[in-house]
Amino acid sequence: MNAEIHAAMDALTSTVTRALMDGAFVFCVPSDDASPLTGDIVFASVRLRAEGLSTLVTELQFPADFARQLALDTVGETDPAAVSDDDARDTLLELANVVAGGLASSVVPAGRLCRIDPPEPRSLAPASAAVSALVTDGGARVRILLGAESA
User: Fold this and answer.
1) Which CATH class is domain 3-149?
2) What is the pLDDT of residue 118?
């Protein structure tokens, strides 16, 4: 993993942790288990483009049941019927957008132009992406991927 990705991954993991805590009061800690998730997974990927830097691709992978709970928590609901699969996906896409903004403020030098593409509900991370994981206070495991796209 090159130095740019390593530094950005630390910032990304920290940003995801803060975003989950601030946005949904979900406490997370780093996990040593960054293996692929199994079952129904919700993806959110965002490209971050800044002049003079590689295009970074961030990807969040959440178990679908955790994504639904996150959507419930975000809107203050307790009834699972109050949110749809689309609501869960949209919540994760918004989280990915917030995270990309936080990452940009950490890794893009001041004064450089930066563009964050709209989040996409699919996997975009390159095979060589760095991977980290978090475990929530409820036991859900979240995967975070970060890679650089070739120009």
Assistant:
1) alpha beta
2) 97
